[in-house]
Task: inverse folding
């Protein structure tokens, strides 16, 4: 029996698993189904949207192909070189944004 053209069925009444050969009609449909499967696009890559001054504006998941119409540059980032919104990108390295400035406390509040 050709493993590419077998069907495994479970008989609920008896609890048995049955493996049988496909009929010619089932084989034809299986071949059609295999040919019609679309190419899978890897969308698991993450990119930073960077403006012309090197500031990271946003982080997105992108297929690397679809036209987005964004100004600036999209650069892939990784766990080893993570991007941070508000951070910068320079010489191939993402840097986190600077820490927020501490507010000045008036002398009378101390």
Result:
């Amino acid at each position: 029996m050709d493993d590419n053209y077998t069907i495994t069925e479970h008989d609920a009444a008896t609890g048995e698993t049955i493996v049988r050969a496909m009929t010619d009609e089932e084989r034809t449909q299986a071949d059609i189904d295999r040919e019609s499967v679309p190419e899978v696009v890897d969308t698991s890559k993450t990119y930073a949207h960077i403006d012309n001054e090197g500031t990271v504006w946003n982080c997105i998941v992108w297929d690397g192909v679809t036209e987005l119409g964004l100004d600036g540059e999209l650069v892939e980032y990784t766990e080893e070189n993570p991007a941070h919104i508000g951070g910068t990108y320079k010489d191939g390295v993402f840097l986190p944004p600077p820490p927020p400035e501490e507010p000045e406390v008036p002398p009378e509040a101390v």
The first strand starts at residue 6 and ends at 10. The chain has a mean pLDDT of 82.
